[in-house]
Structure formats: structure tokens, C-alpha cells
Amino acid sequence: MRSLLFGLIFTFISQVAVAGEGMWLPLLLKSLNEAEMQQLGMKLSAEDIYSVNRGSLKDAIVHFGGFCTSELISPDGLLLTNHHCGYGQIQQHSSLEHNYLKNGFWAMDRNQELPNPGLTATFINEIMDVTDRVLAFVNDDMTVSERQTMVDKNISKLRKNFELEEYQDLVVRPFFEGNQYFAFITTTYKDVRLVGAPPESIGKFGADTDNWVWPRHTGDFSLFRIYAGPDNLPADYSDENVPLKSKHFLPISLDGVEPGDFTMVFGFPGRTSEYLPSYAIKQLVEKLNPAKIKIRETALSILDKYMREDETVRIQYASKFARVANYWKKWIGESMGLERTKAIEKKEKYEKRFTSALPKDSPYRTILPEFEKLYKDRAPLAFVRDYYSELTGRNIEMMRLVRMGQSLVSNYENNGEESFIEYRDRVKPSVESFFKDYKAEIDSEVFEALTKLYKSNVDKAYVPRMMHAKNDEDMNGRSTNSSDFVLHHTVFNKKDKLLAVLEMEPSEAVETLKNDPLYKFGEQWKMLYDEKVANPLNKIQFRMDSLQRIYMKAQMEVFPNKVFYPDANSTMRLTYGQVNGYSPQDAVYYTPVTHLEGVIEKYVPGDYEFDISDKLLELYRTKDYGPYADANGKMPVCFIGTNHTTGGNSGSPAIDAHGNLIGLNFDRAWEGTMSDYNYDPTICRNIMVDARYILFVIDKYAGAGHLIEEMKLVHPKSEME
Ligand code: ARG
Ligand code: GLU
Q1: Directed axis angle between helix 417-436 and helix 506-515, to 10°?
Q2: 693 in a structural domain
Q3: Is 650 an active-site residue?
Q4: Ligand 1: does its nearest atom lie under 6 Å from the Cβ of 322?
Q5: C-alpha 417: how far from chain center
Q6: Domain assignment of residue 347, yes or no
Q7: What phi, psi does 345 have (nearest 5°)?
Q8: How many CA within 13 A on the CB side of residue 226?
Q9: Ligand 2 center to residue 677 CA distance, Å?
């Protein structure tokens, strides 16, 4: 009896996920996490975090524009998120005269708050497990498409059964690769205004050099406000709108953090893949990441050259550059981390344990061998896919306009003039805004460099004829370098010419587009790609997806005591851990909190990444920190913890044991960015701005004390004593 009990306890302890790993569904905290969280120091109950019956923490957590997280920090709809999440908006409002990127922006009263058409703020009203309803009548004998048809049918039936308010939406999402389904009732507000942003020298201090890096010294925050109609419900932008009164907002703790303190991070993590087989990781590290890294490096070096030459270009390209550079750097860290933590070996060992636990005749025995074959077949195709999508979808900007051109033509050819006109009128504003921040010269150089890279790295079979052409008949018999010809004669990198084509009679516009050399080039490339890459790849991917679902189910059956968490899928999750340093390499240990002293140490006058404004220097010299300094009189800036986060968690609140805001998540430490595939508690750390630094910047730096007044500042630690 006793040994049995011991055995049970032992398996329990050894199977429980490490504190830190996991992105949990708020709905399931009570059953899966509450006990552990309280053991780690949390003073709240699961019901305080997620409740449908009363206001709870979840009512202060807002999906920001669908790509970041934000949280309410006042009873008047004041919303906190990252500077890099609000970056597009801050940039849109900026010009050389009003350079809010450079100088910051602060609305000194509500009339000065700036509207942002298109920007949304989404609340989660309720989460429901709808697995039974979505998987009703689904069985293992069905083919994948039969299964999908049944699932789709069940979901649309389910939708009809919900009585939603007009402003609500119901989102149903697969979890555990489609073994479970959850539904989310959401409410989306559409009038979200910019309230404040520090200058880049604070909000983006260290820029790309420090991005993904600890120790960090960035005040990566900005402030928005949600406006509602007079009835407090979502409404389009209007003068009549009023600040939102929400069910909950987060008080802000002035007590700061110490190593070992409990922390949780609440938000909308985008995507992780923790349950892939070792073959997937191997392919990523050996083939796909290196290719994507090289492509972006090539493009970035060109952008960088032009940005350094011209301040206007720097403003125009700042946001694009940051976006491309961000994942470029992440992939480098990710590959390094996967290698250093021996992720492939770890997975292989896990797979051995999995296989040896299976009965001899288990149907699951074929899963891993089949994966091995599928990944092998996929390798060359996935490589070209990444090349194609990096070039046409991301780095060569004019190719995005070509895509729009292709849709115009197909609208015309398949649905006639009216459909052409409707689509054209819809995309015209985006064409205009495309050219607002565009330099054909730069894009042309990127085009040249990347098509050259494509030709030398991608198998000939996937290179379109026009990319080969030097001076042959493909180029209408002209003896000129092919890309020179294309770039010179196309309308897609020339604003006025392209807009003029859009204004033509539909039939004439379609003719002109189809004769455009870049359009032809894009068509050729796309046709080749669809036939030789997309179609075969989709077939493989289709099989992989269903095999991954079966593998997931099998893992859960084979390791019944292991607590699994679902991969991130942009739905609301909570992760928790502790404030904690780490050792990135032998003999080096990083402590978990940085201070203003560190900003000063990194200061390089005049540098575009590490410059500091006189005002901040002055505050530092006079130690004018107001009530925001720590117990030693120092100004904390950032801290790290073991919370398991990913892209999309940017802007997520870091919350203390009592439910108060202590920081703002904005990054991960480089050595641990492989946590998307392989979380390792020894080196995976999320990076947060200390809430006290945010308050200090708002109050002391910007003189926007009126904003502090609407917040609720608390001292949870001193109150405990
Ligand atoms: N690495 C962070 C994230 O993934 C911050 C990115 C923005 N900052 C930058 N320097 N690019 O979003
Ligand atoms: N900066 C990321 C974001 O925009 C968060 C960092 C991460 O990937 O963990 O969501």
C-alpha cells in the first residue's frame, strides 16, 4: 500500500510540467493549475482570474488589433500595450514636422487623443468547451475530408444555437490539433485612440541590436483608450463616443519584484508547436531557418544602407525594417537554442519512450515512421515555399501589388466588370498608403538581390523562365538584363502609373495589367509554384496535419499522467512562473532586474539605437524618480521571469500574486526563443518592462500626471506586513 502510494506520488511529481512551461486556458485553471499557482505564492483563486458571473482579471485583458495584447489600467478605458504594438499607429500619425516616433506623443487632454481607423480592441466574454458538439458523429473510420465536413457542419449548427448580441461574435477554434474544440464569445470595440507614446529613445531603446536580448533597457510601452458609444457598447468612431467603462481594470503595484516572486502573464499568444516530431525540428534547424535567415539578411542590408543615408527614408522604412529584422534575429536565436539544448536528441528520446510504451499491435506504431517519410518528402518543397513566400509575400514589396493585380484580373475574368470595380475601389486606398512609405529604388535593389539569391539556391526546376532570361525573346527581344527591363517598364513600382491603370476602363486596365512585364513575371512564377510546389506540398501537409492530430491523441493516451497544454493559437491564455535569472553559458549568470544605470551605460550620443534625450539624462542626474524608485533609490527598468510566452504576448500584463500589474511583457531572451518548439526552464525567459518605469516615464518624463491620476496605484507588499 505504502509503496503504491509512493509510486503514485513519484509519477505525479515527475510528470508535472515545470513551473513556467505551459500556456493554459483560463477556463481550465481551476482543475489544472490553481493548486500549483497557489503553491507558488498566488493569493487569488481561479475564479478571480476567470469568471463569467462576475468581473474577473480576464475582463481587463484585451486583444489589441488581433496581433498583440493590451490591458485596461483605469476605469476610463485607458489601455496599456507595447510601443512596438502601437508602432504602426504612432508612425501613421508621424511626419517630419510632427515626429512622434522621435519625440513621443502625449495627449494632454482627451480631445487630443488620436483616432486610428481599423484598429480594434477585443474582449473575451466567455469560453466554452464545445468538443462534444463539434466532434459529434465524427469517428476514426472517416477520411480526413469526411471528418472536416462533419466538423464544419457541427460548427455551423453550433453557431446557430447561440443567441449573440449584435456586437458579439463567436469564434470556434481547434485545440490539441483538433482533438478538442473551444468556443469564444467576443466583443470588439472599434474606436481605439492613441493617448501616449514615449520617444523611440525610450520605447525602442536599443532597437534591433538589443531586440531579443537580455539584459534589456527598453521602455517598450504606449497608451491607447477604448471609446464606446453612449450606451457603453461598441461603436464606429464618433465625436459622441465616450471612454469605455469596463468590468475590470488592473491596479498597478508600486512594490516591484524580487527574484522568486510569483508572476503570471495573461494574453493572446500566437503560435507554438510543442508536440512536433524530431524530424520537424531537424528540418527547421538544418534547412528552413538558415534559408530564411539568409534571405532577410540580404534584404535588411539594403534597407539599412538607404535608411542611414536619409532621415525621411528612415522614418518611412522604420516599421518595415523592424518587422523584417525581428524574426530574422529570432530565428538565429531559435536555431542556436535548439542546438544548445539538444532539442532534437530530447525529442528522439521522448519518441523512444513513446514507442516502447506502445503495445506490439498498436496502430500508433506507424505514426513516427510515417512522419519520417513525410518530412523527407516535404523537405525540398518546404524550402521553396519559404523562399517563395519570403520573396513575394514579404521582402520584395512590389510583388504584393502584383498579387493585387492578379486578383483584379481574376475578378474581371471570372465575375465581370462590376466585381472588378468593386474590388478596385476597395484596394485603392491601400495602394495609396503603400506608396506613402515606399521607394522604388530600394525595392528594385531588393528585387535584384533576392531573385539572384533564389536562382543560386533553389533547384532550377522551380525557377521561372523570366528569372533566367538575360537578353532573350522572353524580354521582347531586348538585349538588356531581364530585371532591369522588368523594373523599368512595370507600373507596379510607380504610384501614378499604377493608379492611372486602375482608373482605366476595366477591359483596358486588365489588358494593360496582363501585358505588364512584372505582372507576367509574377504570373509565370506563381503558375510554376502552384503546380510544382503548392499542390504537392498541400497534399503532404494535409496528411501531416491529420497525423499530428493522431500523434497528439496518442501522446495523451501513452502518458496519461502528463499534464498537456494546448499549443498557442491566438486564443486567450495564462502562463505563470517566477521572477528569475538564468545562466546563458558557462560561468555567466544574468540577474533578473535592470536599472536606469544600465541605460546610461549603453548610452551612445547621436546613435540611432542608443541615444538618450537630455530630459532623461537630467532626471537620472538629479535622481528625480518620484515615488517610483525601488527601496535602494534606484529606478528599475526591466525584469525577466520563467513565464512561457510567444509572439502575440507582446503587451501582455505581468501580474503579481494579488492581481496587480507589475510589468508589461514585450520580448523573450534570445537563448530561449526556441521555447516555441521546446520550452526549457533553465534558459527560457520572458522580458517585461517594470510597471514603475512606465509610471516614471508618464509622470516624470512626459509630465502627463493626469494619466496617473486615473489609475489605481497600490502597495500590496507593504499592506501585507
Ligand atoms: N522581439 C519583440 C517581438 O517579437 C519586439 C519586436 C519589436 N522591436 C524591434 N526592435 N523590432 O515582437
Ligand atoms: N515581441 C513579441 C510580440 O510582439 C513578444 C516576444 C515573444 O515572441 O515572446 O508578441
Answers
A1: 60
A2: no
A3: yes
A4: yes
A5: 38
A6: yes
A7: -60, -40
A8: 34
A9: 15
Q: Is residue 362 part of a domain?
A: yes
* CB distance 83 to ligand 1 below 6 Å: no
Among the listed residues 84, 217, 595, 658, the single catalytic one is 84
Question: How far apart (Å, rounded) are the C-alpha atoms in residues 336 and 586?
Answer: 15
The grid coordinates listed for 491 are 507600373
Distance, in Å, from the CA atom of 644 to the CA atom of 641, rounded to the nearest integer, reads 9
- What are the pLDDT digits (tens) for 448-477? 999 999 999 999 999 998 887 654 444 454
Q: Give the span between the Cα atoms of 433 and 316, in whole angstroms.
A: 11
Could you tell me the sign of the dihedral formed by the alpha carbons of 148, 152, 155, 157, in that order?
Answer: negative
Which cell is 682 given?
533553465
Give the Cα separation of 304 and 7 in Å (integer): 60
Question: Does a structural domain hold residue 502?
Answer: yes
Taking the CA of residue 323 as reference, the ligand 1 atom at the shortest distance is: 11
Q: Is 443 a catalytic residue?
A: no
- Take residue 43 and report the three cell numbers written for it: 493569493
Using the mean position of ligand 1's atoms as its centre, give its distance from the Cα of residue 579 in Å. 21
Which letter does DSSP use for residue 84 in this model?
T
Q: Ligand 1: distance of its center to the CA of 326 in Å?
A: 5
User: CA 49, CA 33: separation in Å to the nearest integer?
Assistant: 12
The pLDDT value recorded for residue 339 is: 95
Full residue range of the structural domain in which residue 300 is found: 278-547
Q: How far is CA 440 from CA 22, 469, 718, in A?
A: 45, 22, 59
| pLDDT tier at 720, thresholds 50, 70, 90 | low
Task: Report the number of distinct structural domains present in the chain.
Answer: 1
Residue 658 appears among annotated catalytic residues: no
Of these residues, 220, 443, 516, 656, which one is catalytic?
220
At 283 the pLDDT is: 98
pLDDT digits (tens, 9 = 90+) for 283-319: 999 999 999 999 999 999 999 999 999 989 988 898 8
How much is the pLDDT for 556?
97
Residues 68, 74 contacting (CB under 8 angstroms): no
Rounded CA separation 673/668 (Å): 6
| The length of the chain, given as a count of residues | 721
What b/e string do you get for 315-346 counting C-beta neighbours within 10 Å, with b at 16 or more?
bbbbbbbbebbbbbbbbbbbbbbbeebebbee
In the numeric block, which cell numbers belong to residue 493? 513600382
The three cell numbers of residue 226 are: 477604448
Best substitution site from 666, 671, 688 to test ligand 1's pocket, by max atoms within 8 Å of Cβ? 666
State percent of the chain over pLDDT 70.
Answer: 95
**Residue 17: partners with Cβ closer than 8 Å, 6 or more residues away:** 562, 563, 565
Statement: residue 99 has pLDDT above 60: yes
User: Distance between CA 203 and CA 698 in Å, rounded?
Assistant: 12
